[in-house]
């Protein structure tokens, strides 16, 4: 037996899969509760279980995807950082850029986040020309004096960003030697290693961010590697990178910024492989877990970008183009001023988790709404390993959402589901329609703990229909409006006979509110709402049939040709 083990650490669960290379099949799929405070303890349990079940010599590769770097930035849990820069360029990091994007008319728009204060930025006498020629030699005394002051100030990492270092790193390398000789325990981040490209602000910001997350993330990677090698002495341990590649912990020790999108990018690469196997070119991957939803449009090969923003902080690193929003199974639903129902981006995480977990959580989440509606097992999850307290889910939804809005708990649960689905749709429009891509030409690939469930709300499935100009042309049609959800066991409307496909735990139709363009709750599923809202006007409209694949599986092509009429409000 020769196993490849994939470990994906999320905000709520840690997923583990084991693939037997000899049998060419998955032999284990497991879930563990994540523990952001003690990630090593979770990894200890995972590796111990695998070694016990399959033997210490059975694992040849451990491939790890993690949000450790991303969460360190989002939660502000990095180390105290200092910065050394060329004399005269001390304020580059603080001034930033004048471009304000969508906030151009907002006089209260927040500035880009700084990971250090100005008193920890020191100038060094040195200067290189645009071609990398030495104009002024590095003054070693300036570096030594600055490092001594930073150490006295409690700094744990130092970023070095000299002008034109990407053309000639000689001065940055010399400064690094002085820093390590003066303070061997300091983590050193060099701009020519992190981002050897022009644009001073972005290069400085990326180098500072790399120093900020460097010590905790590099320790995490080393711990993972040491633990895996101790349990599986014949294995290799690799970490997913933001660009879809993989590297060892030693290679990423100097540039942990390359792992910022480590967790989400693995799903994109897997989705692209699935599309290649099925012969489908255009894909939209949709990965939803307990905390966030990650979406990527793949018009053939994955798209890449050279800059991302995390917590209002720019990062220059090569990464797969992924759109992330705070929408997942643990997203908290709350009634705000208005009253307005808001779902996310705050998440209950693994601790305390949704109210139905019975671990002390009292805030209603998407998972609680799904338990209340019967879309999730109201008794237990993970094959009985996780008991579910459905009564606590009902209490949380009733007291925090239903009562303030003056509706029943069932209506409130449907509302939570619809609001979150609408948030996802807005993000999907951003990566498709707003970029010139027609979503009807793409196949939706949902995965993750909540991906297939939410996908049933936003896109019902696919139909293979030849173009009128070419018999080889394929169009995979999608809906991008919040469709109605019917209660389990509900029958399709006579006008929709033959156009429904059971999505596992509910059904979607294609009717819309003609005034607002948002899906209406099904009157038959919620009788109380039927009395208050008469049936909307109906108009005939030709539209390709949409069908949904089973939960957890990639959407398949629907056979057949021709058109079908859908009633649209």
Describe what this molecule looks like in 3D.
The protein has 569 residues and is an alpha/beta fold. Among the domains are: 78-212, Rossmann fold; 263-492 and 515-533, no CATH class. 30% of the residues lie in helices and 25% in strands. The chain has 14 helices and 28 strands. The chain has a 6-stranded mixed sheet. A 4-stranded parallel sheet has the order 6-5-9-10, sandwiched between helices. Strand 13 (282-288) and strand 14 (293-299) form a beta hairpin. The radius of gyration is 26 Å and the shape is globular. The N and C termini lie far apart (57 Å).
Defining traits:
single chain, 569 residues, alpha/beta, Rossmann fold, six-stranded mixed sheet, four-stranded parallel sheet, disordered C terminus
Brief digest:
The chain has 569 residues and is an alpha/beta fold.
Helix and strand arrangement:
Layout (H helix, E strand, L loop, with lengths): L2 E7 L3 E8 L4 E9 L5 H16 L4 E8 L1 H8 L5 E6 L5 H4 L25 E4 L2 E2 L5 E3 L3 H13 L4 E5 L8 H13 L4 E4 H4 L5 H32 L4 E5 L5 E2 L1 H4 L9 H17 L3 E7 L4 E7 L4 E7 L2 E8 L2 E3 L5 E6 L3 E8 L18 H8 L6 E2 L4 E2 L2 H16 L3 H23 L11 E5 L3 H8 L5 E4 L2 E7 L7 E3 L20 E3 L17 H6 L6 E5 L20 E5 L1
Parallel strand pairs: 1-4, 4-11, 5-6, 5-9, 9-10, 13-22
Antiparallel strand pairs: 1-2, 2-3, 7-8, 11-12, 13-14, 14-17, 15-16, 18-19, 20-21, 23-24, 25-26, 27-28
Helix pairs in contact: 1-7, 2-7, 4-5, 10-11, 10-12, 11-12, 12-13
